[in-house]
Design a protein that fits this description.
Keywords: Ligase, Transferase. This is Aspartyl-tRNA(Asn)/glutamyl-tRNA(Gln) amidotransferase subunit A. It is a single chain. This protein is α+β, with helices and mostly antiparallel strands. It has 2 domains: 223 residues, Amidase signature (AS) enzymes, CATH 3.90.1300; 188 residues, Amidase signature (AS) enzymes (Alpha-Beta Complex), CATH 3.90.1300.10. The strands form 4 sheets. It has an 11-stranded mixed sheet, with helices on both faces. The protein has a two-stranded antiparallel ribbon with strand order 4-5. A two-stranded antiparallel ribbon has the order 6-7. Strand 6 and strand 7 form a beta hairpin.
């Protein structure tokens, strides 16, 4: 599949029309068998593509993403449609009065929205097992999970159906599916990309970000969403490795890759990391539960049972316990600042393993089998707790199931993440590999 950068250049040069590309993407999405798509936006996509073609015909520049087809996780507002957040509870909600801010920015850059994409209901899970829309399948092995909660977004990019897609990340919902599907996925520094017009989960942690199959596309889309280009990093990147539970719950291939990347780099152990993840769970549960408290009181049986029970538990948490978790977070961040002051990037696994089987969605954590839906985010959730930016990068593993690492930076130092990722790709340690088997056509 051509990259977004290549597609936009071809459209601006008049070598291919945005309308042709939109029609190709729509046809591929209609044939999709990964259970990744919730709605195909054919009428809207063709109208947006025609508008791009009209600008090209007049000699005007339609933008840096001219004619690039993309999809969004089903919690982004799309004007005229209910924002379902992957739930039957919201299927009959009033239509959105406008697009999410991120969608507006991509449209202004010339991109063409073609679909909304599957997710865990209300983004509460790491697997994209959805009671209403089904379980999204991994393009590298359809018998395995794509990860979640932005699994539909990862699957359509990994399958080559569109070059870019947007997801959201509250505790790892971009980085987990990026790792399992072998893509680049960004969880930005908290609050640095626009969340306006997205259905919330936990305000303390909610962020949005892109999935891409290459770094040039990531830099381009990231810049469009930011409203300015990502600052270019100059000089060396000071690296540290994360140890402790990040080392204990990891695939040997991840540990070997980290050694190859940073064999002589210092090892940093974050303080109280298990407690940090527990506090992140608690804050997420409390904020998510209270958001749904009134609806649960009247329509509890309309929720996915696995999601409903977790939301009810969160709604019952006392304010005092939530306050203690927030106080711990403030103390944790104060201690963290000193620990990482001398480094630009921390390297850690993104997931503890490759994609588990759909028929047995369990993974090994601390020597025991644990539900993948809850624990695939064991390494991403503590990083979300810090608010730091994190870029999931795929290990170069052609012919094997994908695995990813996290490159974790500082607010304002996102350029270091891209710089290091580019170096690792040039060295052959990381990079996207296309699925060996395909159950749908890809965008030409």
């Amino acid at each position: 599949m051509r990259s977004a950068v290549e597609i936009a250049a071809a459209v601006r040069a008049g070598q291919v029309s945005a309308s042709t590309l939109a029609a190709q993407a729509i046809a591929a999405l209609k044939a999709d068998a990964h259970v990744a798509v919730t709605r195909i936006l054919e009428e809207r996509a063709l109208a947006e593509a025609a508008a791009v073609d009209a600008l090209v015909a007049r000699g005007d520049d339609p933008g840096p993403l001219a004619g690039v087809p993309y999809g969004v996780k089903d919690l982004f507002d799309v004007e005229g449609l209910p924002t379902t957040a992957g739930s039957a509870v919201l299927a009959g909600a009033a239509p959105a009065q406008g697009d999410a801010e991120a969608v507006c920015r991509l449209q202004a850059a010339g991109a063409v929205l073609v679909a909304t994409l599957n997710m865990d209901e209300f983004a509460y899970g790491f697997a994209t097992i959805n009671a209403t829309y089904g379980t999204t399948r991994n393009p590298h092995d359809p018998a395995r999970l794509a990860g979640g909660s932005s699994g539909g977004s990862a699957a359509v990019v990994a399958a080559g159906l569109v070059p870019i897609a947007l997801g959201s990340d509250t505790n790892g919902s971009i980085r987990v599916p990026a790792s399992l599907c072998g893509l680049y996925g960004l969880k930005c520094a908290h609050g640095s990309l626009p969340v306006a017009g997205t259905y919330p989960f936990a305000e303390s942690f909610d962020d949005i970000g892109p999935f891409t199959a290459n770094l040039a596309d990531m830099a381009l889309v990231w810049g469009v969403l930011r409203g300015e280009a990502v600052p270019e990093w100059t000089g060396d990147v000071r690296i540290a490795r994360l140890g402790g539970r990040f080392h204990e719950n990891a695939d040997p291939a991840q540990l070997a890759a980290i050694d190859a990347i940073a064999a002589h780099a210092p090892l940093v152990e974050l303080p109280d990391i298990a407690r940090a993840r527990s506090a992140a769970f608690l804050i997420t549960a409390f904020e998510g539960g209270h958001l749904h408290r009134d609806t649960l009181a009247t329509r509890a049986m309309d929720y996915d049972p696995a999601v409903r029970d977790r939301l009810i538990a969160g709604a019952l948490l006392p304010d005092e316990l939530y306050g203690r978790a927030l106080a711990f977070r403030a103390d944790f961040l104060a201690r963290l600042e000193g620990l990482i002051a001398d480094f630009d990037v921390l390297v850690a696994p993104a997931t503890p393993c490759s994609a588990p089987l759909i028929e047995d969605p369990r993974i090994m954590i601390d020597g025991a089998l644990s539900p993948a839906r809850a624990d695939l985010g064991i390494h991403t959730q503590p990083i979300t707790f810090t608010g730091l930016p994190s870029l999931a990068v795929p290990l170069h593993r052609p012919g094997a199931l994908p695995l990813g690492l996290q490159l974790i930076g500082k607010p304002g130092g996102e350029g270091a993440l891209l710089a290091l990722a580019a170096r690792l790709e040039n060295e052959g340690l990381t990079g996207v590999s296309a699925p060996e088997r395909s159950i749908a056509g890809e965008l030409i």
